[in-house]
Amino acid sequence: MIWSLAFLGAGVAAAPAARRRLLLSRAKHPSLAGHARLSRRVAKLIPGLSYPPERFFACDGAPADVVARRRAGFDRLAALYAERFPKGRALTAEARDGLSDLQFTGLYRVPFPFAAHVRAHLGVGAFAERSAGVTVTDVDGNDFLDLTGSYGVNLLGYDAYKGMIAEAVEHAGALGPVLGTLHPVVADNVARLRTLTGLDEVSFHMSGTEAVMQAVRLARYHTGRQRVVRLCGAYHGWWGEVQPGVGNPTAADNTLTLADMSERTLRTLETRRDVACVLVNPLQALHPNGGAPADNTLVDGARRAGVDLPAYRAWLGRLAEVCRRRSIVLILDDVFTGFRLARGGTAKWLGIEPDMVTFGKTLGGGLPVGVVVGRAALMKRFRPDRPADICFARGTFNAHPYVMAATNAFLRWLDGPEADALYDGLDARWDNRAAAFNDALAAAGVPVGAAHLSSIWTILYHVPSRFNWMLQYYCRAEGLLLSWVGTGRIIFSLNYTDADMAEVTARFVRAAQAMRADGWWWCRDGATSKAVRRGFLRELVRERLGRTA
Ligand SMILES: Cc1ncc(COP(=O)(O)O)c(C=O)c1O
Q1: Which of 5, 236, 326, 481 has the fewest Cβ atoms surrounding its Cβ within 10 A?
Q2: Sheet of 480-481: strands edge to edge?
Q3: Distance from residue 308's CA to the centre of ligand 1 (Å)
Q4: How far is the CA of 382 from the centre of ligand 1 (A)?
């Protein structure tokens, strides 16, 4: 009797913890991206599979005539690349062995079974020489319309940043790279950033990743709590604690990855006492709970994206309320979206009042920067009543004079009349451009389209082909420059005119038509992305078990 009472007592005591645990697991997104540890374990199980040429073209069971068309199309592209990009390819081959980044991006442009054959024949040069307007010129003298946006840095067009950097060198040149002592321009940057955000204090860093690290560290320091909540799929830089899944070899045990736009996430936050902060990356409005859409995961047609802004704003509003009630620091990670979606940063555009905002990318005026802006109580790195209990964050290059002067050039541009014209009607302009792009593709009868968040686009595929990623190579042949994630992420600079957009659209249509003619979009009757993915997974399992098809 005594024992059973003791058990009952222990059960009652454990019940709230068990309930919290259950709530937490239900607040995770059901995908692998929602389960960091599991995704890492699964990643380790995936065997190396590399299609030899005879399997490459026929891996989906296409009939012989389609396989022949694919082969001919591939050979034609390979010949074109060899002729057009000789210098770029030679330089890339020369640098690759000693440049780890190049080895990685060179292999991870396409799903891994296709990578070796593609790299051998459709190798792309990694070197460029010039930029002007909306074009980038490679080392072979080929002009490309730039769809990379330089990871989002290029908001205004490269020429604008060249001007800002030149101005910065002039402005800060007399002081030179003196560090620790500040250039006077820093004071103006602080004043402008405070006005812009309505927040109290600013700190300068060297990258978006560092800005996020600092914001999270401060949130932990001031709340005395350890847990960091990130929303499923969201990127916040490559620091381990905000990247708990595949790609990070260390365990990020204090990070909780919760589902975006989920009631269960709100309920979980309501019940926990250990959460220091929630990070929000507004880019996720384009693909809530999905990771950055890269072509290297495109083994079917299942890429999903599309914006429901009213729903996203409403959910964020409720998230902000919960954070306020529970004294959880709300960090808006505006590194990517800042100044791209709205002039004053994204917080006002979304209708939220975060406690801290991180910026980076374009804010540096073309030079590397990371910035944290936040409420005074959270930004302090010391406690007056306990002087030894500090939160240390100082980096050698923080507030580098040249970076600060280029940042100042950007901030002054932002306050000037040119910005009025650029931001006026921004949403409608990009909605119209995306609609025209989609109409043209539909009129051409090609199975692709775009989803977009303002000037950030992603290409969607309407057929469950294993080869959708091939489109990036047809695009390059048409003079469209994509980053290593291919058609997953297209970033336009705002100096694109309607005429430039018409040219992009025409080239895209031609690329898609050529791809269709070459048979890459052949699919079995009634094929679905689910079935195609399953077929691919079955192949991996066979490979893992040592049995080839
Ligand atoms: C939202 C967000 N946060 C942080 C980062 C990291 O910035 P950086 O690459 O400058 O370290 C990025 C980079 O893409 C980002 O998009």
Answers
A1: 5
A2: 128-132, 135-138, 143-146, 480-481
A3: 23
A4: 27
* Listed residue (456, 454, 511, 447) closest to 489, CA to CA: 456
Q: Which helix (H) or strand (E) holds 138?
A: strand 135-138
First to last CA, the chain: 63
Among 127-141, 287-301, 370-384, which is the least confidently predicted range?
A: 287-301
Q: Is the pLDDT of residue 23 over 90?
A: no
Q: Which atom of ligand 1 is nearest to the CA of 151?
A: 14
Structural domains in the chain, CATH included, are 53-155+425-537 (3.90.1150.10), 185-289+310-423 (3.40.640.10)
Residue 339 CA, ligand 1 centroid: distance in Å = 14
Q: Which residue type, as a one-letter code, is found at position 287?
A: H
- As for ligand 1, residues whose beta carbon falls within 6 Å of it are 151, 207-209, 212, 235-237, 281, 333, 335-336, 360
Residue nearest to atom 2 of ligand 1 (CA): 236
238 C-alpha to ligand 1 centroid (Å):
8
Going by CA atoms, what residue is nearest to atom 6 of ligand 1? 237
Atom of ligand 1 nearest to the CA of 210: 11
As a whole number of angstroms, the distance between CA 535 and CA 455 comes to 35
Tokens of 96: 């690759």
Total count of residues recorded for the chain = 549
* Alpha-helical regions (H) of 2-126: 2-26, 36-45, 53-56, 64-84, 86-96, 100-107, 112-121
Which residues share a beta bridge with 227? Answer: 275
Structure tokens at 235: 């990127």
Q: 167-213 pLDDT, tens per residue?
A: 999 999 999 999 999 999 999 999 999 999 999 999 999 999 999 99
Ligand 1 atom with the smallest distance to the CA of 337 is 1
